[in-house]
Amino acid sequence: MTLPNILTAFRLLCLPFLIYELLAGQYLIAIILFCLAGISDFLDGFIARKFSLVSHVGALLDPVADKLLVVSTLVYFIYQGLVPLWFLLIILFRDFGQAVGLAILKKNKMHFDPKSQLTGKLSTTGNFLVILIVLLSHFYGELALYYNWFFYAATFLTLLNIVHYSMLWTKIYTQQT
Predict the structure, then answer these.
(1) Range 132-137 contact pairs with CB under 8 angstroms and sequence separation of 24 or more
(2) What residues make up the domain containing 51?
(3) Structural domains in the chain (count)
């Protein structure tokens, strides 16, 4: 197992502890766990590319770990009334669309390199920032004044990601048929 894959596994292992700490109201510990998970997300990709440790397993597990971290945390925030449901629904729509797009390409035996795209990285970063701002607002209440700005910015990045992948997969589909 490569170091980037270990870091991705670490991120997955942080998730149940993060959710437990959120449920227990231990927001400082939750912030630390979330930041460690976010740092591991950056490091696994950086190390994989820098040292040629990119693997098929890592290319598949990394986005799964990101999606589980974001969706699980947002579900908790929605339950607490801290995040609007529409924000999560747009993210789930994107994830469902990506899964359907990949399934169509695979079903038609079309080649697609699953390496991450810039719009995906920006979208994930936007989602991570929303989560971090909501967590930090437990200590700095004035951050709640900026929620909408962060929601809209992250939503824009997610929509941009949807458009980008739709165009990319349409191009691949039309070129390979």
Answers:
(1) 132/31, 132/34, 132/35, 132/38, 134/77, 134/82, 134/83, 135/27, 135/30, 135/31, 135/34, 136/31, 137/82
(2) 3-175
(3) 1
